[in-house]
Amino acid sequence: MKHSTLIFPRSLTSWLPAVCLWLWMVPVFAAPTNDDFSAVTKLIQGWVDQDYYPGAAMLVAKDNRVIYQHCFGNYTPATPVFIASAGKWLAAATIMSVVDEGKLSLDDHPSRWLPEFKNDPKDRATLRQMLAHTSGYPAYQPADNPIDHYQTLAESVAHLLPLPLAYAPGKRFNYGGLAMQVAGRMTEVATGKDWETLFQERIAGPCGMTDTHFTPVDTGEGHSPMLGGGARSTLRDYANFLSMLFNGGMFAEKRVLSADAIRELQSDQVRGAQVKPGEFVERVRGAKHNGIYGLGEWREELDASGNATLISSPSWAGAYPWIDKTCGVYGFFIAHVNLAVVNRVNFSGFYSSPALAQTVRETVSGRQPLKAEK
């Protein structure tokens, strides 16, 4: 099997192991398969043809072998793209690596690391709740209160601090990114390192993700780092991250996250908090269960015992990574919507991209794929 040119890590001392693990885990070209992925290709090509996306790329692996890879429009496997909320999974994994070392606990309150939270009602929330969207914090910074052109997590937390709780911690699931800023700052203080360094050392480097970063999401002076929506990645990089999760925290025969960390990421972390009707999982899967979220990831489908069998981290911009345990598959669709077009026609990448997981499942099982939601 031939391979295209690889992008080597920037550190010359580490390039050989990373290249070897890429060749072992994620070959650039798909392995031969009898599966007919024409339905997947047609679905994505239709979105590109309608100008919802300027381009896109998709990779599917089954049992650690890439069985489908295709690029659309102007995309390549190495095209860097802002992946919005797909970065929540990366952020949660980074924090869990620190929990693995015992430097943080999921039950820590902010004031353990951030004394400015002492005697503040927001201190009742835990790190676990911040990563599960049940902290009670506002989902997003109110407009111009202040203008949040923050450049550090410390500055972002200072912007958040004056805001009141929206709900009592643990009482409601309220999807958003603001609490993750506090979680990230707690992690920085606990380790003595800035967020990007933590991510590179603990997740990106070990997983051979040479072109993934938490960077400003706006032109010029913008949000940086933005844990819940500010990551940039490539098809190849994020596939490596999914491979690590799929293999229980192992990548290239080296442990990145513990088995306990993987279980925490995938477990029901909503823990009885109220979930509003029509939330993401109900809308895209018709599921009525309340255990819809773990840490940085959605629990789209559960088995009879309540274990997550389909997990994901979709973004409003269209990027959609997922792991489907029912058929031994993980996949990543990377794209970024053309806002002028999708706003006019009311197309949502957040609600449409999950159709890819179902279409892939139907493809590998030989059944008729379902139609996507607009």
Task: Give a nutshell description of this structure.
Helix 3 crosses helix 7, helix 3 crosses helix 9 (259-266) and helix 5 (153-160) packs across helix 6 (178-191). It is built from 13 helices and eleven strands. Helix content is 33%, strand content 15%.
List key phrases describing it:
11 strands; three-stranded antiparallel β-sheet; alpha+beta; six-stranded antiparallel β-sheet; disordered C terminus; about 375 residues; single chain; globular; Beta-lactamase; disordered N terminus
Q: What can you see in these coordinates?
A:
The protein is an alpha+beta fold and 374 residues long. It has a domain at 85-331: 3-Layer(aba) Sandwich (Beta-lactamase), CATH 3.40.710.10. The protein contains 13 helices and 11 strands. A 6-stranded antiparallel sheet has the order 2-1-11-10-9-8, with helices on both faces. It has a 3-stranded antiparallel sheet with strand order 3-5-4. A two-stranded antiparallel ribbon has the order 6-7. Strand 8 (298-302) and strand 9 (308-312) form a beta hairpin. Helix 3 (87-100) packs parallel to helix 6 (178-191), helix 3 (87-100) packs across helix 7 (195-204) and helix 3 (87-100) packs across helix 9. The longest helix has 14 residues, at 87-100. It starts with 14 loop residues before the first helix and ends in a 9-residue tail after the last helix.
